[in-house]
Amino acid sequence: MQTSSDRHEYPAHWEADVVLRDGGTARVRPITVDDAERLVSFYEQVSDESKYYRFFAPYPRLSAKDVHRFTHHDFVDRVGLAATIGGEFIATVRYDRIGAGGTPATSPADEAEVAFLVQDAHQGRGVASALLEHIAAVARERGIRRFAAEVLPANNKMIKVFMDAGYTQKRSFEDGVVRLEFDLEPTDRSLAVQYAREHRAEARSVQRLLQPGSVAVVGTGRTPGGVGRSILGNIRDAGYTGRLYAVNRAFPEDQKHLDGVPACRSVRDIDGPVDLAVVTVPAEHVPDVVTECGEHGVQGLVVISAGYADSGPDGRERQRALVRHARTYGMRIIGPNAFGIINTSPDVRLNASLAPEMPRPGRIGLFAQSGAIGIALLSRLHRRGGGVTGHTGVSTFVSSGNRADVSGNDVLQYWYDDPETDVALMYLESIGNPRKFTRLARRTAAAKPLVVVQGARHGGVAPQGHAVRATRLPHATVSALLRQAGVIRVDTITDLVDTGLLLARQPLPAGPRVAILGNSESLGLLTYDACLSEGLRPQPPLDLTTAASADDFHAALARALADDTCDAVVVTAIPTVGEGAAGDAALAEALRSAAAAVPTKPVLVVHVELGGLAEALSAAASTAPQATPDTASQATPGPAGERAPGPAEEPASGSSGPPRPTAAPPQPPSAVRAPEGARLIPAYPAAERAVRALGEAVAYAQWRRDAADPGKVPEYDDIDEKGAAEQIAGYLARGQGLTLGAQETCELLGRYGVHVHRALPAPTPDDAAAAARTIGYPVALKATAPHLRHRADLGGVRLDLADEEQLRRAYAELTELFGAPAELRPVVQGMAPRGVDTVVRAVIDPAAGAVLSFGLAGAATQLLGDMAHRLIPVTDRDATSLIRSIRTAPLLFGWRGSAPVDAAALEELLLRVSRLVDDHPEVVAVTLEPVVVAPHGLSVLGASVRLAPPPARDDLGPRTLPAY
């Protein structure tokens, strides 16, 4: 604890967990007087060379005066932070505020001297870089704008830490010492460096979990059955390539093996390192296991055990303690209440999950926050994995359970670099950090498709067990923002699998033009209608008739693919009477060979589930013998030599984790892995499903093309950013949050070139007449009471009042209909050119960030929710697409012979509002309604602005793990 002479209380909000370069974690916290012994112990473990680099002279030990100085801080002018693992220091950093000449100073001096010391055993792990981010954030909070550091020329590692940070800096050499000075304001380069380091560290932390060299299953039962024993068997049967151990404290001391696996009573008894521990013991015993694992140097945990936040408030606190406990030792956690993890890579072959069978190897990555949905995803991919030339399988699978630590964001970081994953499928019930997820999704989607289905969309709350920040944005808005980031947002698990299979097997379409061919006229027409419903441009279906042979299909498909007016082909097929499996196989081979000749266009098959076509599509490239009725229920060789599922296992009793599937999903016939470069043509049982998947692929392909040129945020010479900042600061000095008055709103918006039509209050008829004379006729008389505002349909607005007589008559009518002027709050406003009434809104959401929204005013927005949304800052391309994204956009562009509006003026207005909110995060809400857009120009007739201290921006601060 700090002494009474210290100027500030202990800043607990500076404490944070960070992921280091090698994927391990450390805790960063302020140093206090209670750390004297830890500091001395830490210093004793630092090499003489590192001590020399820190103090510029031999310095074998710290004096009592040194210890006092380095542990007593006022948390303003003198601050020290430590990185700890297992409660012990591994690195320290401190700053001391200095004035002119480098002498100690107090505020308002805005420069500080900074120095680091990292234990030699932990150098190279990125500890100093992480500490620099945190000490810089602390310094900015305390009014320090610049750091200075003196470093010996031979201390290349520390010089590199400063030089690589990305801050604007100055370097000089004097008296044998390198002096570095750098500003602490984040720059585009410093943020890019921070994001790159975050990516490497988080990807590595997941890699350590998915590619362990050794695994211990803690809680394996002595008798068959139970979760632990089942997972041990699943890992063993999958052919895991690393070392596997069974751990149970109840094992007899003389027991050395269990099911052929080395057995130990404790993780501590294992002779050798353990990279991953799968924890299946009851929740009350998990803390002891975490301690054992941490002391043995285990790198990560998969906690299958339930009874945490999924069980109520007490369990939630137990979950927080679990995360804190594991991070103390530098370990990351998947779970608790997890279904497990799978890696099908031949170099790993890890099935540390409750899935009784290893999925087929493939190019699809799966992430599910729900064990039940994880089972459904694996099962559907297993059944639907068939294609013309083989099977599409899974690269990695992660079921995060309560997602207390490792989240979808972490797995996205891993998949982005993973050469084994081409398509990412995610089932999310909550998004803990929408701002970060959107950033990562945009980067991932630019390289490989990311398909997401969201559960609990309409419940309004996160599922029990998920600790997430609340968002005030409706689900539709969040979905729109995800699509803006390139996420393929679907509604169901079926759509997730359908879309994923297409993207994993076929090239992206160059456009929306679709050719349809097949041997059923009715199925072709259904496909045609489905294409129109999805916004595609189908050609008239080509009916080959039911007499069509495989050669006819081949020729028709080849012609369609060669047609320059076609971007994709949907083949519809019904069974041929009398030909059976042989005919299906011939048709599948015909389609495959025709598609192989034009590998740049996607091909999909819609089949009626009456014959063996789906199975033939799966087996078209197969050279393996097909299962016979006598052997179909037995385990048979699967793709690439893997073992196909055998009989279902009975559910384990007394399990402490999620429910275990009681049956393996049905297996299609065996097929060998497709030849290198072969195309897998997906088959769908319904036209609507095939076309829906194709529509998502078309939209994603267009996003990829647009993302190559995202546009720019234009500069406007007439924007007064400094004046607006001073005005906002003056308003906020009056209170923490306030809605500006009409005059203040007009003045602030005017500084950004947004001019609101003048409206004068009219509390009496005489005041209304005076206001009209000031403005000039014709005028409008409006009631601005909340229940009448923007409700012209209720009669609270009178337009085109040409003289005082009409104005007074309208005033009398309003007061007669709606009550006294004090209730109506009438105003007089000059008439604007006629046009289309629209609404522009901007809001800063604490979770998702700043969002700009646009729609037509009135029923389209209020009743139908027809609004489009973009993340701020908005580029010129964003603004162009924003006004064209609403369903009622044709009303802006000459619908039914009306004059098109001035789209350029509307886009400029959107860009100016975006700049205002982006430049001044204190502007937490802006509403412009109505904005009347005419054929030439526009008029902002109403506006409101709300100011408040800006919500914390964790994406601009130092890297941290979520605190639960």
Detailed description of the structure:
- The protein has 964 residues and is an alpha/beta fold.
- Helices cover 33% and strands 22% of the residues.
- The strands form seven sheets. Strands 1-2-3-4-5-6-8-7 form an eight-stranded mixed sheet, sandwiched between helices. It has a seven-stranded mixed sheet with strand order 11-12-10-9-13-14-15, sandwiched between helices.
- A hairpin with a 6-residue loop joins strand 16 and strand 17.
- The N terminus is likely disordered.
The total of helices stands at 27
Mean pLDDT figure: 86
The general outline is: flat
Radius of gyration: 33 Å
N-end to C-end Cα span: 24 Å
Number of E-type strands? 41
What are the low-pLDDT stretches, counting only 5+ consecutive residues below 50?
Answer: 1-6, 618-676
Strand order of the largest sheet: 1-2-3-4-5-6-8-7
Structural class: alpha/beta
Major sheet details:
8 strands, mixed
Q: How much strand? A: 15-25%
Assign a percent range to the helix content: 25-40%
SSE diagram, text form:
Layout: E1 16-19, E2 25-30, H1 36-44, H2 48-55, H3 64-71, E3 78-85, E4 88-98, E5 111-118, H4 127-141, E6 146-151, H5 156-163, E7 169-174, E8 177-183, H6 188-210, E9 214-218, H7 227-237, E10 243-247, E11 257-258, E12 261-264, E13 276-279, H8 286-296, E14 300-303, H9 313-328, E15 332-334, E16 340-343, E17 350-353, E18 361-368, H10 371-384, E19 386-387, E20 390-391, E21 394-399, H11 408-417, E22 423-428, H12 434-445, E23 450-454, H13 475-484, E24 488-490, H14 493-505, E25 513-518, H15 521-533, E26 537-538, E27 542-543, H16 550-562, E28 568-573, H17 580-596, E29 603-607, H18 613-619, E30 683-684, H19 687-707, H20 721-732, E31 738-739, H21 742-750, E32 759-761, H22 765-775, E33 779-783, E34 797-801, H23 804-818, H24 821-824, E35 826-830, E36 836-845, E37 849-856, H25 859-862, E38 867-871, H26 876-884, H27 903-919, E39 923-933, E40 938-940, E41 943-947
Parallel strand pairs: 5-6, 9-10, 9-13, 10-12, 13-14, 14-15, 18-21, 18-22, 22-23, 23-24, 25-26, 25-27, 25-28, 28-29, 29-30
Antiparallel strand pairs: 1-2, 2-3, 3-4, 4-5, 6-8, 7-8, 11-12, 16-17, 16-21, 19-20, 31-41, 32-35, 33-34, 33-35, 36-37, 36-39, 37-38, 39-40, 39-41
Helix pairs in contact: 6-11, 8-9, 10-14, 11-12, 14-19, 15-19, 16-17, 17-18, 22-23, 26-27
